[in-house]
Design goal:
Length: 687
């Protein structure tokens, strides 16, 4: 028989080979079994003794690892309750670093908890349940970036709340101090009771504090429904009071300390939206009374306010707002907002008008009295220090604006704030069939603040633009286009313009102009032209070309030039207005191109102030001429009195090329190419 042939059984079939476990494999299995037995014995000892014998070793190890004194005054338990870690300590305290204002970082009469084991292995702190009684927590930052809860040397890490699925908290206080964010808060967490797996009450909390110098009060409650035990959500109801503003938040959290993925609803009401934003250290324009609502959730380092809606003043607003709060870096606001109908009074606070005065006095609230005369340019300063701490990117659209004089619609504002440089670029809107575009750069990196204005009005129908001032659209074919380029320095709009330099130019291409004799407001375009031309306008004025331009130096805008060439007259102007005190002192006259009696060649004065303009149709020059006429009538004959009002009709027509180019007075010419010496040349006196 072959020695390798397996033996046969009784029926002649080959017998099966018997496989034996090798000796090394047996050793491995015995070793693993021994380890498991050892672990089981440790678990059993800990479970039976509750780990109380580990109290002093745990104190020494914790003190060594943290570099802080860690003590447990009373009972101590640390063991595996089946799989999860059971930890209980009475009189637990953890010291603060020597620089902190409080001696203890944490202390509690009782802390009792169940900690998930496997997440802890990978560095995640997850409490299945936590009972805390008589707790005091003092969390403190320093101005140089250290904090009281980061152990060891080096910079401070942001505080990360552990995930807590269920909580029972009584008589516990939390203090939080952060000089970098100008935040000081004190929170008291009230009592709750539980029976079995059902929460019979809510976690009630109250507190107060200051954020960026703004005081606030806080109260609310957090309820943990039965579903919480099965991984459900927790209901949050909170109220924040800031001045006369009230912010109410309600909704659900994934867990009592989990904000990520929260589903909250916010309602905010008050007299000025600027007040609650001060809690973030963020400056927004003042507003009239507001009432807003929004959905709120947290995603990473972003707080997202979606489906935002409500009102400010009598205007509506909707859109979304995101507040980015990175662990390191600058806070940033990102917004996409829209308004269907904006009341002009509600827009007033955006540029510095007092919303309380607007509420009380309407449009007249924009006018104040300074130096014995009315002023209209706002003097509200830009908050330089506040805009240093945050950035912003905002898109804001307005479909229609409600105001009495100019039809404005389709406002589109793009705001970009980056490290104290604020750009309103572009800011555009439609007005009376035309389009205005502007770029305004406010650079607060310089002091005083430097502002560049560049405002451009595309050709706009005069009939529509001035319809509410008595201009007849059906009889007016003329258009107007304009550009304003100014640079100024100052922390308010008034200061910026009061020291500005640049140029203002309004161009009138060929067209007709027709007014109805209707008295409207203080400055009546129709009345002005009728006084200027000395007779009622029986048919439209035919304009060949026109330029109303000013050179601005240190806040004084001098005519450079005012020159309008019509079919029958050349209208000329001299003088200036001031952004400093808002005064106006100009004179406009019409010289006839052909022989005319009573042509009104004497100037019509424009004076007063921006807030109270005045037309002086009977100027001192006209009074002088009237006196001369009376004298001539006495000395010669009644006909002689008329001679003083005769216009020989020698007005020199304007060359329209330089006019339509917006050229300065020095470049203006007559139709014969000769320089004009009869127009203002950019100095207040016109000489």
């Amino acid at each position: 028989m072959d020695s390798e042939t397996p033996p046969a059984d009784s029926e002649g079939r080959p017998a099966r080979r018997t496989h034996h476990i090798t000796q090394p494999l047996k050793g491995i299995l015995y070793t693993l079994g021994g380890i498991l037995l050892f672990i089981f014995l440790i678990w059993l000892v800990l479970f039976i003794t509750k780990g109380r014998f580990l109290k002093h070793p745990a104190e020494r190890i914790a003190t060594s690892l943290t570099g802080r004194q860690v003590r447990v005054a009373g009972d101590f338990q640390l063991y595996f309750n089946i799989i999860n870690i059971k930890f209980r300590a009475e009189g637990l305290s953890v010291a603060n670093p020597s620089w902190a204002k409080d001696d203890k970082l944490f202390q509690a009469r009782l802390i009792d908890s169940s900690i998930s084991t496997f997440p802890l292995i990978v560095g995640k702190r997850r409490f299945r349940w936590l009972t805390l009684d008589g707790g005091d927590v003092a969390l403190e930052w320093t101005a140089d970036g250290r904090n009281s809860w980061t152990f060891g040397s080096g910079g401070g890490k942001p505080f990360q709340m552990p995930t807590i699925k269920r909580a029972s908290i009584t008589d516990t206080h939390i203090d939080y101090t952060d000089p970098r964010m100008a935040l000081l808060a004190n929170l008291k967490i009230g009592d709750i009771t539980s029976s079995g797996t059902r929460i019979n009450d809510a976690i009630v909390f109250t507190g107060s504090g200051r954020s960026h110098g703004t005081p606030f009060k806080l109260n609310g409650r957090l309820t943990s429904p039965n579903q919480t035990v099965a991984g459900g959500r927790n209901t949050l109801i909170a109220h924040i009071g800031v001045g006369d503003s009230a912010i109410d938040v309600n909704g659900t959290l994934p867990g009592p300390t989990e904000l990520e993925g929260s589903d909250l609803h916010l309602v905010a009401k008050g007299s000025n939206l600027q007040v609650p934003f001060r809690l973030l250290g963020v400056v927004v324009p003042e507003t009239r009374r507001y009432n807003l609502h929004s959905n709120v959730t947290k995603a990473g380092d972003e707080w997202r306010l979606t489906r935002l809606g409500g009102t400010f003043g009598t205007s509506d607003i909707a859109g979304r707002l995101t507040v980015v709060t990175p662990d390191q870096g600058r806070l940033k606001l990102i917004a996409d907002l829209s308004t269907k109908r904006l009341d002009i009074l509600d827009a007033g606070p955006f540029i510095g008008y007092d919303p309380r005065r607007l509420d009380k006095e309407g449009g007249k609230g924009a006018i104040t009295v300074k130096g014995g005369h009315p002023t209209v340019l706002p003097d509200a300063p830009l908050d330089i220090e506040a805009i240093k701490v945050f950035d912003a990117k905002v898109k804001y659209r307005v479909a229609h604006i409600k105001e009495d004089y100019f039809p404005i619609s389709n406002i589109d504002l793009n705001l970009d704030l980056e490290r104290s440089r604020l750009a309103l670029s572009p800011l555009t809107f439609d007005v009376a069939g035309g389009h205005l575009a502007s770029d305004i750069i406010i650079n607060a990196r310089q002091r005083p603040v430097a502002t560049d204005y560049d405002i451009r009005l595309a050709p706009t129908p005069l009939g529509k633009l001035l319809a509410r001032f008595g201009v007849d659209a059906s009889g007016t074919t003329g258009v107007i286009k304009a550009r304003v380029q100014l640079k100024g320095r100052g922390d308010t709009l008034h200061e910026s313009l009061a020291g500005s330099s640049g140029r203002i130019a309004v161009i009138l291409p060929a067209g007709t102009f027709w007014t109805r004799n209707v008295q409207l407001v203080e400055l009546d375009v129709g009345t002005f032209l009728q006084k200027l031309l000395t007779k009622k306008l029986k048919k439209p004025v035919e304009i060949n070309c026109g330029l109303i331009a000013f050179t601005v130096r240190d806040g004084i805008a001098a005519a450079d030039p005012i020159l309008i060439d019509t079919k029958k007259n050349v209208i000329l102007g001299r003088g200036a207005f001031s952004f400093k005190d808002e005064s106006m002192d100009m004179a406009v006259r019409a010289d006839a191109k052909t022989f005319s009696l009573f042509s009104g060649q004497s100037p019509v004065g424009i004076g007063g102030y921006f807030a109270a303009p005045a037309i002086r149709p009977i100027s001192p020059q006209l009074l002088t001429r009237a006196g001369a006429g009376v004298a001539a009538g006495l000395a010669l004959s009644p006909i002689g009195a008329v001679l003083a009002f005769i216009d020989p009709g020698d007005a020199k027509a304007a060359a329209c090329g330089p006019v339509l180019e917006g050229a300065r007075a020095v470049d203006q010419r007559t139709t014969k190419g000769k320089p004009r010496k009869d127009v203002g040349n950019g100095t207040p006196s016109g000489k």
